[in-house]
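for the record, two folds in this file. i put them one after another cuz i was lazy. first one right below, seq on top, structure tokens after. the second one comes after a little note so u can tell where it starts
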Amino acid sequence: MFEFDAEKITELVDTHAIPFAIDLLMALVIYIVGKLVVGVVINVLGKLLSRSKYDDMLVDFLKAIAKAFLMLFVIVASLNQLGVDTTSLVAILGAAGLAIGLSLQGSLQNFAAGVMLLVFRPFKAGDFVEAGGAAGVVKSISIFTTIMTTGDNKEVIIPNGAIYGGNITNYSAKETRRVDMVVGIGYDSDLKRAKEVLQEIADADDRILKEPAVTIAVAELADSSVNFVVRPWTATANFWAVKFDFNEQVKLRFDQEGIAIPFPQMDVHVHKNQE
């Protein structure tokens, strides 16, 4: 029959159960205290990042990454307290991370580019930009992709790697823009009067800034026309409206003043053979 040996049980409890219980309790304390400390650190980090005026999406992402790394250290410390050999665990996690990184090179490139876009902010939501082979108004910027809306209301989703790896033109970055136009008149037209009319059109448009002053100058004596460059400055939001209205006024005023606007034409000469 089974004999109850109090001494052996006491020895077993003293040598194994109690130390294990103490280690388990300490591991739980390390985990709980570590989790609380990580929470405090993450909150402080979030406040610091928010004061730096980083994008909310980037702040949340950086907080999540920092929390994951810190909690990993807490878990490793807890397992060490239980006597678990964490060296092999760290090695396995490192190998798994390397394998995942190699299999997701394209995604990681887009991820890194997304972080850079959110940190350096070459553009923001609402800006009209040309980047990644597309042009449109930026709708949103995520970690992996940027979504734009084109002028004809098409939605374009562009990988961030394609954007950050090329040129970025932000048409909304500055408060003012220069409108570059070319206006041609015929060689028989009054050049000085044409220049005066162009100046009058610019002066009559309140959207055109007085400073910097509009540039109106003869740029080229072309094959069939004398070409003026007209370069007024206006608020960025008025760019297209000023350009379209100015061209319309040029046609109307030139017609009133009898100033000819050349257009391409072809002369065809027919030679009749006489037999």
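(here's the note) second protein begins now
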Amino acid sequence: MTVPETVSAATMQAVRITAHGGPEVLEVVQVPVPAPAAGQVLVQVRAVALNNTDLWTRQGAYGLPGDPDALAGWRGPVDFPRIQGADVAGIVAAVGPDVAEDLVGRRVVIDPARYDAETPDANPVGLMGSEWDGGYAEHVLAPAQRIHDVTSSPLSDAQLAALPTAYGTALGMIERGRVRAGDTVLVTGASGGVGLAAVQLARARGATVLAVSSGAKLATVREAGAHEVIDRGADVVEQARTAAPDGVDVVLDVVAGQLVGEGLPLLREGGRWVIVGALGGHEVAFDVRRLYLHNIQLIGSSMHTPAHFDLLMDTARAGQVQPVIAATFPLGQAARAQEELGQRNHVGKIVLQP
């Protein structure tokens, strides 16, 4: 199916960044609606969720190998202008000439990753909204093989949009950390998007979940599925030791920093510490003897594999998790939404709805 002339000739509202900087570099513009080429699908965006990646890409906070203070995006220099937004739920509006036409009209979620191979366990090496244009727009292009039909899902558009990066990243941590039913799991940063997803997914897997959060957010984190909540305003390690006197099997960590060195002794023999972020700082120091003497594994985890994403979409179609939506904003208020995200006063996901 080719794109109708009325679609290909139309314009759409989009929000893009033109340089690294604060929210002021986000500009609302009218741009042409893109036309799908061979192997591509055009999706009408119903909801696009925000992630810390949006903030850090805008800020250029990722650094470069050998130059950690360099301004860069997720995988290197950003090609400006860039339409942000990795997490899209929407309706297929048109397809490229070699894509099945029966996709048109289907409710879908886009896997936002670009992989280093076409295998189930491939590693993500690029991200929609960072390395190519994303979903801060009324329409977005995506490869047909990254489109997942979720027409049967009971989740709302906003809830579906909350899944790809946060829940995909959390599921990647859980899979790489080999979380099993009966494990005791400690989740840091549990009120954020990835942390709250990790709480829900680990609980659904049958693990006992200890979740680190703070203040008024503790009750919401408990309601989301945590068996025990730990206030990060006090001694986190001591509280975790009290809650799990026999130790922890897996730590799902979005914070890193000082906590890694202090918390490593919490792990049982053969335990796994999985790190997916560095909210607490990117420099880590720990007693390496605690690592090798106890057969502990320190695991880096970046997003998900195609196999992980397939599992996540099965979860979405079955409605096995209920993503928490903290707030929704119209597309034109993307800068305000990013400011809200950066203040970290919310629990759950912030979503734009064109």
